[in-house]
Protein: Protein BatD
Amino acid sequence: MKTLMGNIGLILGLFLLTGIYSHAQEDSDQVTFTLNLSKEELGINERLRVDFTMNRDGDNFKPPQFDGFKVVMGPSQSISSSWINGKRSFSKTYTYILVPTAKGSFTINQATIEIEGKTYKTTPQNVEVTAAVDKPNSQKTVDDVADESLHLVAEVSKANPYLNEAVTVLYKLYVSPNISVTNYRPLDNPTYNNFWSQDIPVTKHTAQNGTYQGKPYRYVVLKRVVLYPQKAGKLDIEPLSLEVFVDVPTDRRDFFGGRIYTQTSKTVSAGNRTINVKPLPEAGKPENFSGAVGEFDFSVTTSKTQLNASESLQAKVEVTGKGNLKLFQLPEPELPSSLEVYDPEYDENIRTYSTGMEGKVANNYTIVPSFRGKYPIPSISFSYFNPSTGRYNTINSEEINIEVIEGPTGNSDNVSVPSANKQLVVPTGEQFHFININPNLKPIDQKRFFGSNTFFILLLAPLLLIPMAIFFFKKREAIASDVIGNKIKQANKLARKYLSTAKKELGNKEAFYVALEKGLHNYLKAKLHIETSEFSKDKITPILSEKNVDTNDISGFIELLRSCEMARYSPFSNVQMQQDYEKASDVISKLDKQL
Structure:
């Protein structure tokens, strides 16, 4: 009897525990929608933060009128999603920053939202606005913190360079220790009009400690470029603009006490920079000056000074040093007319550093003497402007004597003297000895066309082409009649068009979902001729319904937009990104068939 009573008690205990667990489970699954205020009493010179928080995602959010207050920022959305012990936790918040417009007692009325077909409302709360306080405690938003903590600066090495003098521009991104940068992408790259430009690749982005406006910052060099101004006067350096994705700490903390970060994106610009380019001085400018600006050495050398006739030698005209090596012409040597000279081969070995170009440029001339004798290569000069001293310098090469030891002796009476660097022409008196006076010409046999191989090929060609033409037209007609196949091909092509950018960013979570969301909105914009930036998910739904689009396809489209929003705040794997990309292609294909 005692055993029976004990079993009954055990069974009743199990039922009781099951009921308690079910009740707790029902409470945890209950939808909540609350209104939270940063303070219930504030001065008229302070700010009020209002948060509308829900534990389920909803649609058709409608805020109150905020009587007695002015909205200075918002609504901004933040989403938090996590899995703990196999259970999903979700939170979505709409945040407003308000400034009171008068003193008195005001009420923040209820807001509404639709979650799973039901409408939920917040509880109104009262706020007391008093006179101005001495030290207002203004509530800063995530965007406020990002604005104050992120700066893009263009540092120019010289504000007053000479024409064709190197100017280095460093683009530095200063980041406050309070936030962290996760990624960035360029929005507007400068074109550098009136400059010859050369990018210096930044292979490694290393953070360094520095100061900005007297405060400690970390900075990283994002871009280096060397500019050579091609015009005197005031020249503008166009700004570089970036979209930077940052993690900003909030006042909230997680279960373990760690600070919760919110991700946002900010657009930063380096701003316009103007430099005053000085023209090169006219006083003391050499006649042979060809635009070289920098510090250079100049030389003329030959591979040999003694050789036989019909042998060749190499003459090199070379400039080495630091400056605008790619932007001037090398001087040409004045060679004797009795030397056969070929067009020069240009050779350069230049590297661009943050201070400008360094290296060498050269012209290599191939020279072939035809007669025995001595041939002098006279000295030539090279002039350049040195911006460090503000003066012109001229370097003269040494005279070189070429001695041809063996070979025929030239006849000065019969030698034609062409201009410099032209090929030598030597008449010998036997220029026409190869002409045959008795050519022994024979008449060409006249063959008949009819009965020839060409005649039969042209005769039988139509018989072979007709079957091929019939096969080609039937194949083309079969392809044209495949309406379903053609629509599928066209739809797939359309999906690839709008999702091409997203496909390139697979593996990069933030950039992929930004591109995916833009692709979906651009498709609707092109297909329905609407500006989708003004439409939320709840407004897109009735528009597609009016076009008789299937409900499942509408739900798939809206679900993809939600994934793009949640991806900015939740970890997403590469597999899930690939699945979302395939879903987007399928949804666009289905919508296109119905629209």
